[in-house]
Write a structure and sequence with these properties.
alpha/beta, Alpha-Beta Plaits, six-stranded mixed β-sheet, four-stranded antiparallel β-sheet, 10 helices, 14 strands
């Protein structure tokens, strides 16, 4: 059974189009990721499926319930953690958690087993005001508040944005444990490296899904030669590499440039020779070129490039 279904969701805010016919489904016990940059439409999807706003067109179901006609019932069975910290800053950690439990007619004591693996990180600070917590602690508290009423589907909108790397890792370990317990989770993130931690992902840009598959399934669709180029004067080297006729795309990735070739049949050695020869003619004698395996970010840039050229 699909716990979440979205069919051709469209949404505009005045002249700005946020969603352009988004469709997907999430199965029971699945960790589904929506991956894309800021402004891509991720938050609009979450607000529609959690019944906070209405779509302009399209439909959706959560646990078989219609997001418009059954919105009251849906709210009883889901947990939602918005991208912006929205708990009560002047209440303590324990007061926030107790308040949200009360809203759903339960208690911390009754459902403590649901949050104990997460709450133990912040329990020593139970009397501290939520506004005085660190970013990672705030996210853990928000997740506890979203879980305390035992939801069947959990919506997490960019839960690790602005959180330090250690807290990000801890947070994703928590999500995996929740998924393994049977909870269906939909999470959005602008961090491409987090995509591989999901069971399935959708790549979104400008309100439209570019592809939906498992992380390895998406990576497997990247069948062009990919090379990493490094050398002196990286900004100028980027421009020079993009001017090579055989290059499909070239983007800066950390301290390297990732280069995709147009000819799928090129061997890595042949592709490297083309780039090295062209750059040498432009005055670049000391350039490092190596074949690399694509990651999710490479795939995102590839799909984006193909859409622009279509």
């Amino acid at each position: 059974m699909n716990y979440v279904e979205a069919d051709s969701l469209c949404k505009s805010y005045g002249r700005n189009t946020a969603l352009r016919g988004v469709s997907f489904d999430v199965a029971e016990g699945e960790l589904f990721g929506i991956i894309g940059p800021d402004g891509a439409g991720k938050t609009s999807i979450f607000r529609i499926l959690t019944t906070l706003i209405l779509p302009d067109s399209g439909s959706g179901k959560v646990l078989g319930l219609d997001i418009i006609g059954d919105y009251r019932e849906i709210r009883r069975h889901i947990g939602y953690m918005p991208g912006r910290f929205s708990l009560y800053q002047d209440l303590s950690v324990e007061e926030n958690l107790r308040f949200f439990a009360t809203l759903f007619g339960t208690t911390i004591e009754e459902n403590y087993h649901l949050v104990k693996d997460i709450y133990r990180y912040i329990e020593p600070f139970a009397d501290r005001k939520a506004g005085a917590l660190s970013g990672g602690m705030k996210q853990k508290l928000a997740l506890c508040c979203a879980l305390i009423h035992k939801p069947e589907v959990l919506f997490l909108d960019e839960p690790t944005t602005g959180v330090d790397p250690v807290s990000r890792k801890e947070f994703w370990n928590m999500l995996k444990r929740l998924r393994d317990s049977g909870l269906s989770i939909i999470v959005s993130t602008p961090y491409m490296d987090e995509a591989t931690l999901c069971d399935r992902i959708a790549l979104i840009k400008n309100g439209k899904f570019m592809d939906t598959d498992t992380p390895q399934g998406i990576i497997g669709k990247f069948d062009f030669p990919l090379l990493a180029v490094n050398g002196p004067g990286m900004p100028a080297l980027l421009r020079a590499t993009r001017e090579i006729p055989q290059v499909l795309s070239c983007y800066a990735f950390g301290n390297e440039h990732h280069v995709t070739m147009k000819d799928k049949g090129l061997s890595p050695d042949a592709a490297a020779l083309i780039i090295r020869t062209a750059l040498y003619a432009k005055g670049y004698g000391e350039v490092s070129i190596k074949a690399i395996e694509p990651n999710i970010e490479d795939c995102f840039m590839y799909f984006d490039t193909m859409e622009e050229k279509a």
